[in-house]
Amino acid sequence: MHFTFDVEYNAIVASVGKPLWVLRMSISTLTSPAELVVLSVKRSEARCRLLGSGTFFIFRTNNAWDLVPGETVTVRPHKQWIYAKQSCFSGDLVSARLDVAILDLVPLRLERQGIWDPKEEFWGEEGEPLDERARQLMAWGPRPEFEMEQVLPLNDPDDPDGDPIISSNELKDTGNYLAARQILLELCESDLRCLDAHAHLGNLVFDESPADAVRHYEVGLRIGELSLAGLGDGLLPWGWIDNRPFLRCMHGFGLCLWRLGRKEEAERAFDRLLWLNPADNQGARFNVASLRAGEAWERSS
């Protein structure tokens, strides 16, 4: 819970006979405990929204880097104040969880693009027997293709250098990970439905910490899944480029599960990826084969 109250000072006539004016401020105060949606993080603070409301807070904590945009945190506030017209507080982080259903997000649109016919795909040289996956797809028959809406805030389509994802990747390639991360966090703060921001946040920490990377990938994956109720047996092919952020999240999620020893979950993730994108531009079929052979994850995977 929280309380909001206004502080307003009318014109006050000072002893010198001149009016003094003080700006009106709206102050939001948290009660303990409170649930907040993480929007963006910095080294020692997180910008959050009170769950179920449009009220924003700055949460000061030494554990800010441990927070993931899109997750919901339960906090116990201690000290509260106003700084630069923003409601701020410090306190204890009690718990964090992922539940995108409570975030009040508008699902990304799915636009139908045509029909995919497995008979028109290349499954090997003529006369060679089909593998099990190809036989299943052939037996199922034609399926509709869809393209998922891609949300990319801060993008300037008229500026060839205005794509924030490309800018972030260029900074990453030069070793400036903090600046690359800041761009991605600004995208999340603008709209949590920017799936590519979640995917690339996962990429930034994938090598060093799969336990952190899997959380970023899963946020993007679960937000994208809000749109799949009307998909039926449809596909989300890689060839429709706006599907790629969602497919990247799913692929990264599967790799992290594999690295973390959650092999059955990883196999299910890759199987699902192959169902949605049978052309398998990401090599998921090789990961499935390795998992079924009992192999451990390797960096080349």
Question: Which features would summarize this protein structure in a list?
Answer:
single chain; 301 residues; alpha+beta; OB fold (Dihydrolipoamide Acetyltransferase, E2P); Serine Threonine Protein Phosphatase 5, Tetratricopeptide repeat; 9 strands; 27% strand; disordered N terminus
What does this structure look like?
- By secondary structure, this protein is an alpha+beta fold.
- The protein has two domains: 72 residues, Nucleic acid-binding proteins (OB fold (Dihydrolipoamide Acetyltransferase, E2P)); 144 residues, Alpha Horseshoe (Serine Threonine Protein Phosphatase 5, Tetratricopeptide repeat).
- The chain has a five-stranded mixed beta barrel with strand order 3-4-5-7-6. It has a two-stranded antiparallel ribbon with strand order 1-2.
Short description:
The chain has 301 residues and is of the alpha+beta class. It is built from 8 helices and 9 strands.
Question: Number of helix segments?
Answer: 8
Number of strands: 9
Q: Determine the CATH superfamily of the largest domain.
A: Tetratricopeptide repeat domain
Order of helices and strands: EEEEEEEEHEHHHHHHH
User: What would you say the CATH architecture of the largest domain is?
Assistant: Alpha Horseshoe
What general outline do the C-alpha atoms trace? elongated
* Largest sheet report: 5 strands, mixed, barrel
Beta-strand percent range: 25-35%
Low-confidence stretches: 1-16, 20-26
Please identify the top-level CATH class of the largest domain: Mainly Alpha
Whole-angstrom Rg:
24 Å
Structural class: alpha+beta
CATH topology title of the largest domain: Serine Threonine Protein Phosphatase 5, Tetratricopeptide repeat
N/C terminus separation: 46 Å
Tally of discrete structural domains: 2
Strand order of the largest sheet: 3-4-5-7-6
What integer is the average pLDDT? 88
